[in-house]
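Collaborator request log, item 7. Partner lab (contact: R.S.) asked for a structural prediction of Metal tolerance protein C4 to inform their binding assays.
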Amino acid sequence: MRTSRLLFCLRDYSLFLSASPHPPPRYIIAPFFSTPSRFPHCFSSTAHTHQDDSSPSPSSSSSPSSVPGPAFDLPRFSRARSSLTRSHSSSTALIAFARQYSLRVAKVKRAEFDDDASQRAVNTALCCNFLVFSLKFGVWLVTSSHVMLAEVVHSIADFANQALLAYGLSSSRRAPDALHPYGYSKERFVWSLISAVGIFCLGSGATIVHGFQNLWSSHPPENIQYAALVIGGSFLIEGASLLVAINAVKKGAAAEGLEMWDYIWRGHDPTSVAVMTEDGAAVTGLAIAAASLVAVNATGNAIYDPIGSIIVGNLLGMVAVFLIQRNRHALIGRAIDDHDMKRVLEFLKSDPVVDALYDCKSEVIGPGFFRFKAEIDFNGVVVVQNYLDRTGREEWARQFREAAKCEDDCELLKVMASYGEDVVEALGSEVDRLESEIQKIVPGIRHVDIEAHNPEVLSS
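Returned to partner:
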């Protein structure tokens, strides 16, 4: 019997009592402690036939406490209840197995997400990019090299992008409010996307255009030795920043239980990946610039200088497209990883209170933060059995017997209302338990939305 059906029965029976001139039927006690289809012998043969007040039953005349109405066979109900008690052993074993399963799955925990690593990588990149920009700008003024101008533009774009990433990290830490109940974690996705667009337009576009403009009118750069020194120094600075970014990516991958390369492609924090790819492009761009200047110095052909600028521009374009694609998926709303979703669904399907699952969804709402939603068809029999095991079925049986003996319907209605309210609270307790177990299985799930599903609504 579904929980929804149980509540509907309570409501309909209350309406029946308020409208019916007959006394309350005594067999109302049994459905709360067993199911008629499973224990039909606990009801008398006249259980579903209301008798008129003018024609009392023979049994009612022999008992001073009896009133006209269908008779409730207490000895048969006691035997049915003992049979139901024996059946609890199997259901209790099933519940114990499910809870052991959930605890066994929940033992697989991940490291806590380290947001400070991303912040440290961004701050390091900001300082390094400003220092490298100053060196490159000075060398460009001395040498007038096209490839060095491309590197100056590259450093400006990197510095501006790191500033955007730093702002995104800061704004994403704001606490949830009425307009944004799930917080501002996606702010970093927005600013990482803007940073990637800036790399594509300013870094890649301007560098490629400048390279093509000077492809046939270039001249060998002057004071090329200064350019070589600055490129070597910038390579060391950018390399140090790259190592910090790689360390941040490794920590992020460990926090999400992924390999480093998997985290680069589908990790949930774009900030550290953006810093690492931009620093990697910067180190590669410096190597390309050095190769271009070496080729110009060795051959005397100045065309290698703008060619190097075009290559650096294309490299930045590829990095920008990669970052745009990653942040686009994050902003649209990605689901959690398949293996995490599978573990959560396996736990829910194995729980005795769950009959069926409908419309299960998940979404990444921030780096390492997830949201999970499911509609569940609850097994009302198990929910009620769990509740009665906690509170004691004998007490409720006593209350219903005493209420059924009263001539007035008010006492029975009070007991029914109290029992129905407790059943609803019991269902809420089961929902809270499921939510807690789900968050143990995948600690990153911060918000769990479980809704009670009524399959009869769809069938009707």
